[in-house]
Each structure stands twice: as C-alpha cells, then as structure tokens.
Amino acid sequence: MAFRDAQVAVVGGGPVGLMLACEVALHDVPVVVLERLPEIEWRPKAEGITGRAVDIMDRRGLMTGVAETPITPPTAEQRARISAGEKRPDSLHPKAFPGARHFAAMFLLRPESPDLLVPQQLLEEDLGRRAADLGVEVRRGHTVTGFTQDDDGVRLDVDGPDGPYRLETEWLAGCDGGRSTVRKLSGIAFPGTDGITTGYRAFAEIDDHDFHLPGWFRKDAGLLVYEEGPPRFITLEFDGPPENRDAPITPEEFQGALRRLSGTKVTVTEVQKITRFTDNARQAETYRSGRVLLVGDAAHVHSHWSGPGLRLGLGDAVNVGWKLAAVARGRCGEDLLDTYTSERHPIGAQTLEIQRASIALMRPGPHVDALRRVFTELLLRDEANRQLTALVDDLHIGYDMGDPSLTGPLVGRYSPDLLLRRPGGTVRVAELQRTGRPLLLDLAAGPGLRALAEPWSDRVDVVTAECDDAPADALLIRPDGFVAWSTPADPASLPDALTRWFGPPARTA
Ligand SMILES: Cc1cc2nc3c(=O)[nH]c(=O)nc-3n(C[C@H](O)[C@H](O)[C@H](O)COP(=O)(O)OP(=O)(O)OC[C@H]3O[C@@H](n4cnc5c(N)ncnc54)[C@H](O)[C@@H]3O)c2cc1C
Asked: At the top level of its lineage, which domain of life is listed (predicted)?
C-alpha cells in the first residue's frame, strides 16, 4: 500500500506511545504519533520507574541526567521492627527506608536495580525530545475517532485542530491508554475483573495538620497515606469502584474519604492536584489483530499499587518496536509480530494476578490482618523477599524462544549489563544497545563467528571484546535485551537464529 502520512501510526502520545514511536524510528521507519491532548497533562500519575524499566531506559540512553534514588537497604533488625509494626492496626510503612519497595504496603528488600523517582511527565518530556530527534512527527490535539483495516493498510479517522481528516498507514499501534478507542474498535475482547476499590491520590491543603500521623496506615475502611510538606495523600477504600470515573472530583468527595479513613472532621481547604483510581484488572485477549497492535495500558489495566503500569508498558514497547520496524521494512514476515503476543501476554497476565493479590492483601479486617502477619513473617526470609521483589520488578521475566539445547542455555533470558574491554577502553552492553540494533557479542568465540554474521552486517552489530564475567563465549542479543542465541550452541546454528529474528540476509557473504 502507498502510505500517505507514515508507515506506522501510533495512537496515543503517553509514555508508551512515545517509547514505541522512538523504537520504530530507530530503524528508519517513518512514524506519526496522534495524541488527543494539546500538551502533557500534569495530574498525579506514576512517580517513578522501577526494576527492569530503569534498565530499559539505560539501554536507550534515556533519563540519563536523572540521579538514581540512593538505596539504603534496611537491616534485618529494622525489617523485624517493621514486621512487628504490621501487627498493630496502624502500621508504619517501610517507605521510611529510602529505596525500599512495597508489595501491598508490606516491606520488600531493595531490588537489584535502583529506582528513578521522577514524575511520569518528566519521562514523557524526555521521550518527546528523543522522538523529535529521531524525526517522529508528534501531532498533538489530534484525536482518533475510528479506523478500518484491510490487507493493504489502515485508514484512520482523525479529529485535528483544523477539523476531521483521514490518515492512511500500513500499521496502527494503539497506545491510547486503558479506555483505548483502538482496542474497542478492533473488536479485541478485554476480559477481566471489575474494581472493588476507590482511591484518590492528591496534593491538597487541610485545615488541621495534626489530623493524623504522617505515614502509611491500615484502617478499618482501607488504607491512608499521609505525607507532610507539601501535604500528599493516598486513600484506598473497599467500597466498590467509583460511580462515575469521569465526574470531576470535588474537594468534598475527597474530604469524605479522608474523614472516613482518619475518623476525624478534617476539612480540605484546597486541592492542587488529584486523581481518582480503582483496581479493575483486564487484559486484551490478544495484542494483535491484523495490522493493529495494542501496547501499554491499551492492552492491560490493573491497580497501580507498587507501580507496574509503566514498567509493563515500556517492556511491551521495546518488545514490539523492533519487530514492527522489521516487518514494516519488509525484512521479516508478519509471524514475527505474533511473538509479541506470545512473549508479552503471559507477562501481562502475571502482573494482573500479582496486582489482584496485592489488593486482596490490603482489604481491611481481621482475616487479612492475620494473612498479612503470615506474609510479613515470610518476607523476613531473604529468599522469599528476593523472589517477590524480582516478581514485582519484572526481573524474573524470560521468554520461551525455542529449544535451548539448539540455541544455547541463555536463550530467552535477559542479557546482563556486562562490562566489556575493547582496545579503546571499556563499554557496557547497555551503552552498545542505545542504537536499538541487535548485538552479537564475540567474547572468545573467534573470527569464524564474525564471518558467519557478516551477511547481516547491515542490521546486526558484531562486537569483539573481553569480559571477566562472560556468561558464554558468544551471545546474540535482541534490541530488547533478550538473548536470542548463545554458545555453547553450535556456531553453525547462528545463521538460523539471525534469520529467525532479523530476517534473511540482504546479500550473501
Ligand atoms: C494515580 C495513578 C498513579 C499511578 N502510579 C503509577 C506508578 O507509581 N508507577 C507506574 O508504573 N504506573 C503508575 N500508574 C500507571 C501509569 O500512569 C500508566 O500505566 C501509564 O500512564 C501507561 O502509559 P500509556 O502510554 O500506556 O497510557 P497513557 O499514559 O494513558 O497514555 C495514553 C495516551 O493516549 C491518548 N489518547 C487516548 N485516546 C486517544 C485517541 N482516541 N486519540 C488520540 N490520543 C488518545 C491520551 O490522551 C494519553 O496521552 C499510575 C496511574 C495513575 C492514574
């Protein structure tokens, strides 16, 4: 099909849409982003990224000016004190310890990777700058209202500042959030569970600053978080989802939640920023329908406790971006795109499970109090603590990418950020991945490997280096950081792996 505006149209210029657009543009595929809002919205959303998402940023050179949050891991003694605190109805939250993570407002060890505690909007600004540098056209104030697709392409109906217009493209990525128009129009089912909670996250002024101790507290009706200077609140009540999620939030509505949870007559005098949220957990049945893909919140929604949303969405974007570019460029067949669903859908499903469990563990009442005591005892054991931390930070993720006996035992696992020595100095794998190109690391395999990969030299970087912690003599790393082939697999199987993931060679060696 002759596309008019761009080969790929991304609907939604939130963090995931911008990330995906950058991922596709890295491979010289023209992308347009259509974003409903004229500018970035500064209502409270994610306050940082954690776990694997920090690594994803590093591997693209994003947010590099932002200092990582210093980590002060609590000692075993402190953890025991926190666990003891959990036995009181008003429990101190371990957030008192910088760098600590929580699951259902219970303490977790610090993860392997540090946090980047920045508002989501700063990330969106950084991604917007990167998108502009990569030549992505971001059209703000453009709302997608409909689309049709056939074998040739996708036709979008767009409402722009100068009126409605039609846009033709080859591929459409719906990154338009939890209430995704693209998902609804695609006919992809969105099964799951309804919310059972209503919560608010707010920066607000109150008339009585002694209304409650600052901290995180379990209450008869749910959870109350209060932090001083400037006053910040999170509330969670188990009284069902909001009646109307689109209704403007009045100070009285929020004040009601504060009064019910604190048991005081506190008055809200001013609300600076506020969001209302619930915990419905739903996932698109498939992430692809023909020429249409769903990415980020458009593909899955769940409660945001412990902050999985951005991490999951950014992981989706780096999984599918290079695949979409390869298919759009005609290098790979469409079946490569099906690996997006087969690899990412199980990860999304697991996140929904974890988030449902976390909501269940925050329910008020003596039975859950008892359950939390059991849980906190378990979490005092390092092994259990580490396992849950890895789970909520996506550090455990691996993909089923074929028979490891043929392609190497590391296949499907995330490549470590190895420090490599080359004649010019040292370099990390993360730095080598900033181009978004696949990487063949030759750490001891010898010149034969480079010769085998030479026919793919237009799209695969081959780096020969020394490494003290080399997990294998050679590794083929996909743009999303996952190992696609490694020794001790027979080097003769490398061309098959290269063809499978990056298409047949452009020319013969
Ligand atoms: C109160 C709150 C706290 C949160 N805290 C955290 C946290 O601590 N950590 C975390 O990881 N996550 C958190 N999240 C979740 C996180 O904000 C989301 O997971 C993240 O924004 C998802 O990014 P996205 O790009 O997929 O979707 P969105 O950010 O929703 O972006 C979708 C974009 O699409 C645009 N759009 C929608 N429809 C159309 C259309 N028809 N045409 C054109 N454009 C359209 C929207 O304007 C929007 O800009 C929180 C969310 C909330 C609400």
From this structure: Bacteria
